[in-house]
Amino acid sequence: MSEDVYVVGIDMIKFGRFPERTVPEIAADAVHGALDDAGLTIQDVQALWSGNLGQASGMVGQRILHEVGQTGIPVANVANACATGATAFRDAWLSVKAGVYDLVMAVGSEQMGKGLLGGAGGGKGIPKEGLLGSGLMPAVFAEAGLEHTAKYGTSFEQFAQVSVKNHHHSTLNPKAMYQKETPLEMVMNAEMIAYPNTKLMCSVNVDGSAAAIIASEKKARELGLMGRAVRVKASALSSDPWQERDLVMPDVNTCTRTAAKSAYEMAGCGPEDIDLVELHDCFATAEILHYENLGLCGDGEAGKMIDEGTTALGGKIPVNVSGGLLSKGHPLGATGIANIYEISTHLRGEAGKRQVEGARLGMTHVIGLGSACAIHILEKV
Amino acid sequence: MSEEARPLPAVPYLKLPEDGDPYLEGQKCGSCGSIFLSERTTCSKCGARGGFEATRLADRGRLYVFSIVHRSFPGIEVPYISAIVDLDGGGTVKGNLIGVDPDPEKLQFGMPVEVVYKDALGRKDSEGNSYISYFFQPANG
Lengths: 381, 141
Hints:
The complex is a heterodimer of chains A (381) and B (141). The mean pLDDT of chain A is 96. In chain A, the strands form two sheets. Chain A has a nine-stranded mixed β-sheet, sandwiched between helices. With 381 residues, chain A is α/β, with parallel strands linked by helices. Chain A has twelve helices and eleven strands. Chain B has 141 residues and is an all-beta fold. Chain B has one domain. Chain B is built from no helices and ten strands. In chain B, a hairpin with a 5-residue loop joins strand 3 and strand 4 (35-36). The radius of gyration of chain B is 17 Å and the shape is globular. The mean pLDDT of chain B is 94. The chains are: A alpha/beta (381), B mainly beta (141). The interface between A and B is large, with 41 and 43 residues. Strand 5 of chain A pairs antiparallel with strand 6 (60-69) of chain B.
């Protein structure tokens, strides 16, 4: 096995809505933040991977360098649905792991409008949404959640509790879009978007960016950056294997299980060793599924897990202490790296009021429909 | 005066024979038996090339899961029930479930449904053509 690879600088901007700014401008703030975090300059960076979905053909990575310094380094633009940021991070990690470079950067950025994503069927003829069911994301993830209900009896209230928890967590995170408590009645009585997902159970469309600097051990030591470095113990990426209902029902479970298995194997650990998780709560229903998909509990036990507060800050395995996509916000291309920022901040012991005490191992997980799942396991040095 | 044009199928896998009842058609892989909803050249389960056979799908099935959509794109009437139905004998399709209140208390996983064929909610294409679509409605067990 080649030598270990580390995150030596990382940052995200406070998520929000910045319609007056361009995507490269938004991304540049995170790039500067990550460089400052490591005490480096853009001249130290040997290659850049840029994740952005909305402008996937717009050479966002190069335009970011136009903002922060055109050093002529190799740039690749990455798009992989909601796994875009994590895929950019993984590609950057791979290049160091392979020994091609020893200090590179991954940046994720997105500028989003408000409103619904998705929609049933494209093609010729007439619009299909609301005629052949729904392809809107709140409904797609509602259906995935109700599959769990059909198997295990998971209730609307249990799904809603995920939102109560994550919104509570975000009150402790100044970089989250919202810092607002949402009691159970407020979540359940909010506007119903697609049963059982109410408006407060849907992730927030926001603008945002996050950037990470990745280095080899040799380089990190040479630069004196091992003190706050975070070891990348595992990086896994999967696509969706064939499933019987594929044509009408995206499968978010199997690809997560595939990636989780690879990640645990690579890290040489199991779910019981993980101290905190940032997982893909694009909708409250999804978080419940991923407790089981990531092995945080046994199949059919996720409802009990949320009931008992096991995944709340202070519980046995806190999940989405950043506030998650539900309250921190979900700028598609930035999310994967923002998750890595959150875990790194805890492993460095710098998460302030939301610090998971004694955190040594953390996991990040994202799912992009279509489908891509990316999982990273990070370790305190 | 020209004869009024026949309505078109909303999706290619809905067949409207001139001399028979409408039906949904699947494409069955000759190698592994997987059923797909549109014509294709390669099976995404087993990778076999060619050898697909058109097969008439059943008009009955069971509700696998659903969602009740209350907010949609502008101009689309809500609420509607988005239903995923496993058809008897194979094939899974998605569509609107009608003929039952859009209330989770009224819907049971596994409930029997039948496929019915109706005008596509008055939707027309840019040339003014009408369409026929398929819907699900509750059936007796």
